[in-house]
């Protein structure tokens, strides 16, 4: 198996890289963090007998992506799996964030994901099954005041994946959407989880389990994976309760959480 993994230097990206290495998959890793990529490459090659190629790339920049694709084409690499992990968020209300940071969320979470998915679809292994994973979020299930842009960007990925799954299944392509709750990936997310108290801990998913189960389900042809029983219950209620009610409850909860998060961070 040849796997292209975006956002490989982040917490979830590292977990996916380790899981793929454990399975004996060859990896093409990309991230904007070149030092992080090289560190992961050395670790994977030392621990597993797999081929690991890395290329630092700014997925929001078309020229940077074209440079990476040129390397892929030069070596005639063809893929079996695409793991779209790269993404970001900035905590805080919409009006309080820097304008370009708000735009950057959409540029990476959406535009960059579209760019790389379209490119790698054309570089899949001929006449073989192909698997795409989109990392969305439990936040995609709800309107999310104080995380409005992030939640909307993840909803875009959920709807995109659902549509592409139907569109591409006759071509041997399976598409799975991962919708996790909280995950311990950065110091900021750790502060956010801590500030949520019980609910933060109860909805948080372990990185290793999420990566392992995601790949298992994707290869089995599943369409969506929401890790954790409580998260699946929350996603169910998010579908049947009026969205205006959900938005009001979410605002009340996240206003308290973000006030506590910023207090902890200070």
Overview of the molecule:
The chain has one domain (2-265): 3-Layer(aba) Sandwich (Rossmann fold). Mean pLDDT is 89; it is low at 262-266. The chain contains 10 helices and 7 strands. It has 266 residues and is α/β, with parallel strands linked by helices.
List the helices and strands and how they pair.
Elements: E1 2-6, H1 11-22, E2 26-31, H2 34-47, E3 52-56, H3 62-74, E4 81-84, H4 99-121, E5 130-135, H5 148-168, E6 173-178, H6 187-195, H7 198-203, H8 207-219, E7 224-225, H9 229-240, H10 243-265
Parallel strand pairs: 1-2, 1-4, 2-3, 4-5, 5-6, 6-7
What are its keywords?
266 residues; Rossmann fold; seven-stranded parallel β-sheet; 7 strands; 55% helix; 13% strand
The helix fraction, in percent, is 40-55%
The CATH homologous superfamily is called: NAD(P)-binding Rossmann-like Domain
Q: What's the gyration radius in Å?
A: 18 Å
Parts with pLDDT < 50 across at least 5 consecutive residues: 262-266
Helix tally? Answer: 10
Mean pLDDT: 89
């Amino acid at each position: 198996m040849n796997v292209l993994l975006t956002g490989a230097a982040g917490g979830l990206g590292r977990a996916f890289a380790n899981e793929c290495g454990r399975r004996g998959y060859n990896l093409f890793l990309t991230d904007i963090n070149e030092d992080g990529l090289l560190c992961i490459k050395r670790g994977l090659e030392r621990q597993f007998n797999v081929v690991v190629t890395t290329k630092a790339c700014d997925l929001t920049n078309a020229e940077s992506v074209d440079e990476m694709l040129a390397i892929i084409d030069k070596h005639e690499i063809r893929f079996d799996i695409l793991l779209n992990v790269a993404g970001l968020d900035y905590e805080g209300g919409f009006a309080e964030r820097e304008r370009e940071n708000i735009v950057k969320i959409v540029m990476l979470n959406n535009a960059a994901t579209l760019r790389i998915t379209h490119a790698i679809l054309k570089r899949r292994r001929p006449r073989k099954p192909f698997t795409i994973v989109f990392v969305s979020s439990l936040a995609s299930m709800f309107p999310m005041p104080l995380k409005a842009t992030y939640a909307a960007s993840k909803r875009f990925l959920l709807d995109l994946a659902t549509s592409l799954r139907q569109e591409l299944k006759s071509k041997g392509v399976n598409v799975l959407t991962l919708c996790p709750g909280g995950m311990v990936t950065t110091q900021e997310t750790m502060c956010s989880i801590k500030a949520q108290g019980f609910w933060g801990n109860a909805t948080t998913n372990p990185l290793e389990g999420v990566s392992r189960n995601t790949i298992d389900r994707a290869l089995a042809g599943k369409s969506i994976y929401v890790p954790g029983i409580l998260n699946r219950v929350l996603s169910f209620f998010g579908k049947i309760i009026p969205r205006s009610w959900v938005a009001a409850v979410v605002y009340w909860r996240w206003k308290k959480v973000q006030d506590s998060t910023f207090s902890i961070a200070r």
